[in-house]
Amino acid sequence: METGLDYGAYVEKFLLQPISSPHAVLPLNPLTFAVKDIFDIEGYVAGFGNPDWARTHPVAKSTAPTVSALLRAGATCVGKTVMDEMAYSINGENIHFGTPRNPCAADRVPGGSSSGSAVAVGARLVDFSIGTDTGGSVRVPASYCGIFGFRPSHNAISTSGVIPLAQSFDTVGWFARDPTILSRVGCVLLQLPELVPVNPTCIIFAEDCFQLSSIPYDLVNRIVFKAVEKLYGGDILKDATLGEYVKTNVPSLKHFLSLENTDQVYNIPSLAALSSAMRLLQRYEFKNNHGEWVTEVKPVLGPGISERVSDALRTTRETIDICHSIKGELHAALTSLLGDFGVLMIPTVPGPPPKLQSDASELENFRARAFSLLSIAGLSGFCQVSIPLQMYNNLPISISLVARHGADGFLLHLVESLYEGIKEEAGQPKA
Questions:
Q1: Are residues 304 and 394 in the same domain?
Q2: The whole model's pTM is what?
Q3: Which of 130, 173, 256, 357 is most buried (CB neighbours < 10 A)?
Q4: What CATH number does residue 302 fall under?
């Protein structure tokens, strides 16, 4: 694969022109975008990150509705991007197609599974891109590549024409370098006529979650808090210990709490239990979706993916009903906490992107902390946006804002408003 000017982001390049008349006023004209190799595009095989999958599946007879919507809105598609095999990783390394090069830090992973989509945006190869986020596959690479990544409310955008990983969590997400394009794309995909400005009622800073992260507290305080105070006043900022709130208000978690080991350097037991429930349900649904194909074809899978798939194939139905109960209870608990227009502030991931080919045990600890954070929106079905802060020690860091299910338009507008203030406090020029 060519890895020079395209940063190894693409599986295949082609041109899909806008569907509408070139003279029409279209919301995404003249933007360009790239598509994760998990979406159907008429005349092409969705490769799912694995050559054996591509070899054993037919070309698509129609294009996924999300891709068609972007083309109708005036955007031009320039190709399909590399992804982690079977969308089953947050790392971004692929032994078959190569690892897309992180444009912020060439010696670090780009994050997965929507790795190529994030790299294409971060490297300025396209204006925006689309991917999927099941366990964190838009939020993680957005953070690692220093760009915006949006995971919408679960079921807010059609996943028709998208290869499933685990339907309880699958979402179509997107990447952009600035919040204005992020919103323009969101309005098309979410079918919002316009974003109605609504000020947040509260921004809850999850203190314990930031202890899972290597982001310096004073940096968040200096940049984000000051931007919030200038825009909305200091009273809007609230502190919370999210782990305790979740433990108290999600009673079905007790089953997974009892299973958690406590030998990690630092964890939040209730959020680690959320992560366990999410990953168990994900394994079970992956088995139902793809277990038969894996057993019959015996595909060549890379390290990490192979073990994960094997674990999934051994999953039984036991405790799956409890996982669904946890989803419902968490949704209700966070709805009560945030109300209609409250926002939760958390780190997107525990820190900057890990080095390429990191030690497996070191990576597992980071991964465990990452999923404690990622499972909050994953299990609740809430929308989340990853916002790049700045480079710290020459590596990208980010924060995330989480809003209730269905508040996607509100969250997109909030990011647009807040990011100008964040840039000002960080000493960056305003747009």
A1: yes
A2: 0.96
A3: 173
A4: 3.90.1300.10
Number of domains in the chain: 2
Q: Which sign does the torsion angle of CA 126, 132, 138, 141 carry? A: negative
Q: Please tell me whether residues 180 and 255 are part of one structural domain.
A: no
For residue 60, the 8-state DSSP code is P
Same domain, 282 and 408: yes
For the chain, what is the radius of gyration of the CA atoms?
20
Judge whether 246 and 253 are in contact, CB under 8 Å.
yes
Domain boundary among the residues 190, 225, 246 is at 190
Cα 109 to Cα 101: distance, rounded to the nearest angstrom: 7
Whether 372 sits among the annotated catalytic residues: the reply is: no
**What integer is the mean pLDDT of 139-166?**
98
Residue 403 β-bridge partners = 383
pLDDT tens profile 11-66: 999 999 998 766 778 999 999 999 999 999 999 999 999 999 999 999 999 999 99
Give the tens place of pLDDT for each residue, 353-363.
Answer: 999 988 877 78
Same domain for 169 and 225, yes or no, is: no
Residue that terminates a domain, selected from 164, 190, 216: 190
**Which one from 36, 247, 287, 423 is the annotated catalytic residue?**
36
Active site residue 36: yes
| 375 among known catalytic residues | no
* Selected catalytic residue, list 89, 115, 129, 137: 137
| Region of 98 on the Ramachandran plot (φ > 0 left; ψ -120 to 50 alpha; else beta) | left
Domain coverage including residue 297: 203-426
